[in-house]
Specification:
By secondary structure, this protein is α/β, with parallel strands linked by helices. It is built from 15 helices and 17 strands. It folds into 3 domains: about 80 residues, Winged helix-like DNA-binding domain superfamily/Winged helix DNA-binding domain (Arc Repressor Mutant, subunit A); about 120 residues, Alpha-Beta Complex (Aspartate Aminotransferase, domain 1), CATH 3.90.1150; about 240 residues, Type I PLP-dependent aspartate aminotransferase-like (Major domain) (Aspartate Aminotransferase, domain 2), CATH 3.40.640.10. The termini are far apart.
Amino acid sequence: MMKTLNLTLQNSNKNLYLNIAQAIRNSIENGHVIPNEKLPSARSLAIQLSVNRHTIMVAYNELVAQGWVQSQQRLGYRVATTLPIFTSTKTDVKKETLKHQHRWNISKINNNNIPLATSRFPFNFAGGNPDISLFPFNEFKGFMNDALNRPDLEELNYGDNAGFAPFIEQVSTYLRRVRSINNKKIIVVNGTQEALYILSQVLIKPGDKVAVESLGYQPAWNAFKNAGAQLIPVKQTSQGIDTNDFEQLIQKHKIHLLYLTPLHQYPTTSTLSMQKRKAIYLLAQQHNIAIIEDDYDHEFHYNSQPLAPMVANDPSGLVIYLSSFSKIMFPGIRLGIIAVHSSLSTHLINYRTMINHKVNILQQDAVARWMKDGGFERHLRKATRLYQKRRQCMVTILNEFISEGIKITFSIPAGGMALWINVDRNAEKIAKLAKQEGIFLLAENAFHLDIKQDQDKFIRLGFAGLNEEKITQGLFLLKVLLKKHCNE
C-alpha cells in the first residue's frame, strides 16, 4: 500500500482542499502516479501534510467528481483507469518542452548493440551459457543465511576494496591447488567485463596497440577500443594463434598488450599447446608486452586434466589472469577475479575504488562459506559430468547428420562449452533462419575483428546450457536448414 506521495502545494487563495486536489492532479498528469495505481490513504496523507483527515477526503471527492480518482469502499482511492483528456494547451506545452530539450555533448559514443536476451529462445545454443537449473540454490541459501546471521560488521563498512578476505583466501587456495597459480595478488571484481574495463583504463593510452586473436571476444575488444587502443589481429590456426604471425606483428608494430584465451579459445574452442605458450611468453618477455589471459571456463575439461594457465609459470610477472564465476554458478552472480603481480595490484584497486567504493561482502561471504564446506567443488564435478554427456550427445547427432550426407565437419574439443562447426557455406544465413525457428546460434561473422576476413563457413553451437532432450530437439530443427543450405 502506498503510504506517501510527493506533492507540491501552490501558494494560492483557493481553499486548502482545492489546493491539495490540484497537487494530486498535477502528480497524476506528470506521471508520478499512473492509472489504476493505489493512492495514499486519507489518514496517511493527512499526517504527511499536517492537515485534517476530513480535508483530504474532501480533496479526494473533488477529484472523483472530476474523473481523476476512483473510490472503492473499504479499498481506498486509486487513480482512475481512464483519465480525462488533457487540454490542447497542456499538449502544446509538452511539445514546446521537447523542442527545447537539452542536447547532450557525448564524449564517448558506444554504438555496440545491446546483447540479445538469448534465454527467450526455446533452443539456446549460445556458446558460453551454463545450465542455471543445475545450481544448488537451496544448498547455497543456507550459506547466504549464515552470512546474514553472522556478518562481519567491520567488513560491511568502507575499507579495503580488493575483496572480502575469507573469500580471497578460499579462491587463492583453490587456484593454488587446482590451477597451479601461486604468489599472485587477488582482486575481486563484478565479472570479467569489469576487470577488462579497469585494466583497459589503467594500462592503455590512446593509440596504444593491443594484439588480439583475429576471431575473438567482442566485449573485450570494446573495452580496449573505449580506452583508445588500436587493435592488431593475430592470425589463428587450428591450434590457436599463429606464433610466427605474432612475432612479425611485434617487428612491425610496437605492441603494448596481448589479449588471449589460450584454453578453449573463444570462439574456435582450440587449446594453445604448451610449446606455443612458451614461445608467446618468451616474445612478450623480450619485448615487454603484458598478457591478459582470460580463462573463462577452465574447469570444464573432459578428456584429461587441462593445461595449467600461463600465469602459473610467469617469472617476469607480466601475465594478468582473469577468471569468472559466471560459468560455474550463473551469469547474474557478477563475480570474478583478477590475479596479478603485486606491483600492479594497488593501481587496479585504486582505479576500481573510483567506480565502486566497496565489493559485495555478503555475497562473497556466502560463496566463501560454500567453498570451504566443499559445495563449490561438488557442484563443479556434477556440472562437468553432465556437460561431458551433453557434448557427446551433440557429437553423436552431428555425426548422424554427416552419415545422411549433410556437409559439415568439426573437431571434438577436449573441453569447453561449445563446438565450432564448419558448415562450408551460408553460415550467416543459417544463423538468421535458425532464429525464426526458435533456435539461437552465432555464425563466425559475430567473432571477426576484420569482417572482411569472414569466410561465412562456421557456426558455434553451445551444448552446456541445454539438457540432452533439448539438444536433440533443437538439432533436428536445425537439420533442415543444414541440409538445405550446406548442400546448395
